[in-house]
Amino acid sequence: MFNLNNLIDDAKCYRMVRQLRWSEGVRCPHCESAEIIKRGKDDTQPQRQRYLCKACGFNFDDLSGTIFAGHHQPLRQWIGCLYLMGLNLSSEQIAAELDLDKDDVYAMAMQLRSGIVTQQPEVKLSGAVECDEMYLNAGHKGKREAVKKKVVQGDGTASKGFAVAAPSKKRNRQFLA
Predict the structure, then answer these.
(1) Residue 151's beta-bridge partner residues?
(2) What is the tally of structural domains in the chain?
(3) Distance (Å, rounded) from C-alpha 26 to C-alpha 30?
(4) N or C terminus of the chain with fewer C-beta within 10 Å?
(5) Which domain holds residue 21?
(6) Residue 175: inside a domain, yes or no?
């Protein structure tokens, strides 16, 4: 048996994040300025680059402002979790593969899912939009108030109540015969 953690390289994970996040160059997550200088590497994760924005003085790194920021799990664990989620594995299976606690993996998976949902672009429709099917609620089951009708009384006045159908003469004949 092999450990998936040994196959995932920290340097490649950070390189991938940089490519995806800053394909057009590093920008400050605080003010969006491109006037950035590198400020060395992180002490605990040597592949993690630190930056300083010359425009606003904001210090940030590769993960600042992402769902990966501020967690004790290394980036390779997050990437591994994301990959295994794509294979439709359960949190327990992912925990076994990454040698993590299942509660930690569950929390990571929930955070990854919520991050994916919030990052989806807004859908904008244009041109002709066609709808194939439409479902309508045809009845009033369990909603007696919606069925109330005006009932005309014998003196010609109307009152709100339940309309009661008069018994059918045909049905009465069947019982009498």
Answers:
(1) 159
(2) 1
(3) 12
(4) N
(5) 4-116
(6) no
